[in-house]
Amino acid sequence: MTDFFMPCWNAEQKVPKTNSCSRAWPLQWWLICLITACVCWLNVARAESSVQLGELQIERGEDGIYLNANLDFELSTSLEDALDHGLPLTFVLQAQVMRERWYWYDKQLTLTQRFIRLSYQPLSRRWRVQVSSQALGASGLGMTLGNSYDSLSDALQAVKKINRWRIAGLDTLDKASKQRLDLRFRLDLSQLPQALQFGNQASSDWNINFSHTVRLEDLAK
């Protein structure tokens, strides 16, 4: 009869226990995502700050609006190695005149582009810079200007220097509206071989990018 009144010592073991690891995993997942996002943001910010605007001047000429500027940036070691191995680099410079509208999206008035290709010629051991208003193909067609230089530093100076570049006509200016100039400069990664495009899209060593905005109301008369 004593067995009939014996307490159940295993009753406590039947209480389900909460898995602490399962509750902590979502928090760990969000922390990993946050750290990854911060790293990507830092890479983009470092790439954005790698190009500095040393000098900028916008002139109103007799037949249009002209831009003079100096860009200050350096090529990474990986970019210099790519040039030494015969891989050309193409830079794209864009000048976009926009009219601001409070009731709708801003209107694009003009878009002027300049394509700059920097390459190394092993036979002559010289550096070449090609400039065109149209996209440069693999054969270099569309070239409007080409110069050779003895050193990479001299060739880079030609890439960085923007001298009296006509970005728009005078008929673009309107003193009755708010207008701005969006200036952008970047290394065109789409011109790289496909095998290199995917591996270098997120690399700060290959991501040269710059943007700047200038008001144009003072030029309108």
Explained architecture:
This protein is of the alpha+beta class. It contains 4 helices and 9 strands; from the N terminus they run H-E-E-H-E-E-E-E-H-E-E-H-E. The chain has helices spanning 20-48, 77-84, 152-160, 194-200; strands spanning 52-60, 65-72, 89-99, 107-121, 126-132, 145-149, 161-168, 179-187, 209-215. The strands form 2 sheets. It has a 6-stranded antiparallel beta sheet with strand order 6-5-4-3-8-9. The protein is globular and about 55 Å long. It starts with 19 loop residues before the first helix and ends in a 6-residue tail after the last strand. Mean pLDDT is 79; it is low at 1-18, 20-24 and 37-49.
Output the keywords.
about 220 residues, alpha+beta, six-stranded antiparallel beta sheet, three-stranded antiparallel beta sheet, 4 helices, globular, disordered N terminus
How is the secondary structure organized here?
Layout: H1 20-48, E1 52-60, E2 65-72, H2 77-84, E3 89-99, E4 107-121, E5 126-132, E6 145-149, H3 152-160, E7 161-168, E8 179-187, H4 194-200, E9 209-215
